[in-house]
Every structure is written in structure tokens, then in C-alpha cells.
Specification:
Blueprint lengths: L11 H40 L4 H18 E2 L8 E2 L1 H12 L11
Antiparallel strand pairs: 1-2
């Protein structure tokens, strides 16, 4: 039995499928961005904690200030630009919050 058009002249199930498809695609894109940020944060924090393995206060400072500094200096990117972390400002943020120069930023040429 063929589907009947609604009184407005279009098949309403096509609109429901289209909206569902767009919703799923948007969820996948946003979910991928959140996953990528989480993965970068985990990798970065592990690298900093590895650098602080000999200094207990350094590790405590990383654990205490990491999330704030990471969120402040992480760029989600856009359609034409990849995600990124402003590493220089991120390291400065951790050093400033800890009131100790645990990490030495690279020299600016």
C-alpha cells in the first residue's frame, strides 16, 4: 500500500528521517571533538607528570592546576582549523598558578 501524502503535500516521515540523520551526524561530530580533547588532555597530563616524577610538589601542582590551564588554552578548532593547545601559555599558566617555575618554556627566537 503506497504511503499517502499529508494534507500539506509531503510525506512527513521523510522529514523525520532527515531530522534524525542530521541529529545523529551532529552528535558524532561533537562527540569526536570531545573525545579528541579528552585524549589530548590525558596524553599531555601524563607527559607532564612523567617530567615531574622526581619532584612531588611539581606533580601536585600539575594535578591541581592542569584542568583549569588546559581548558583556558585549548582551542576546539573549526571547520578549517585543527584543534590545538597553546603550549607556551599553558606552561606559563601552570607555573603562574603554582608560583614556581616547574617547567621552562622554550626560548622565543
Amino acid at each position: 500500500m503506497p504511503q499517502q501524502d499529508s494534507p500539506l503535500g509531503y510525506n512527513s516521515m521523510k522529514w523525520v528521517r532527515a531530522i534524525a540523520g542530521v541529529t545523529v551526524a551532529t552528535g558524532v561530530v561533537f562527540g569526536w571533538k570531545v573525545y579528541s580533547k579528552f585524549k589530548m588532555a590525558r596524553h599531555t597530563q601524563q607527559a607532564l607528570l612523567t617530567a615531574c616524577v622526581q619532584d612531588r610538589q611539581c606533580g601536585a601542582a600539575v594535578n591541581r592546576h592542569f584542568q583549569y590551564c588546559f581548558d583556558a588554552h585549548y582551542d576546539w578548532g573549526s571547520r578549517y582549523q585543527a584543534r590545538s593547545l597553546n603550549g607556551l601559555n599553558f606552561i606559563r599558566c601552570i607555573n603562574d598558578k603554582a608560583d614556581q617555575p616547574y617547567f621552562k618554556p622554550p626560548p622565543i627566537p
